[in-house]
Amino acid sequence: MKIIEYKISGTHCEACKKIIEMDLEDAGFEGCTVDLKKEIVIVPQSFENQVNEIATVVSNAGEYEMEIE
Fold first, then answer.
1. Which domain range does residue 48 map to?
2. Which is it for strands 3-9 and 33-35: parallel, antiparallel or unpaired?
3. For the chain, what is the domain count?
């Protein structure tokens, strides 16, 4: 599976990771994961055309921001 990585800010702990991943899954973006160490969101390439929607889900999950440019 090909993936795309996006920088994320505002994540501090395992709870942040879980909240974002659960919200993404609930929104239909299964397979998206957060790597706290690298501070990235890992997105399957199949969602490449929905990055703006993914970024919105991430920001709505809390004090998080995903860089998409």
1. 3-66
2. unpaired
3. 1
What is the DSSP annotation of 5-54? Answer: EEEEES--SHHHHHHHHHHHHHTT-TT-EEETTTTEEEEEGGGGGGHHHH
CATH of the domain at 23: 3.30.70.100
Q: Considering the entire predicted model, what is its pTM?
A: 0.93
Average pLDDT, the chain: 96
Decide if 62 contacts 12 (C-beta within 8 A).
no
Q: How confident is the model at residue 14 (pLDDT cuts 50, 70, 90)?
A: very high
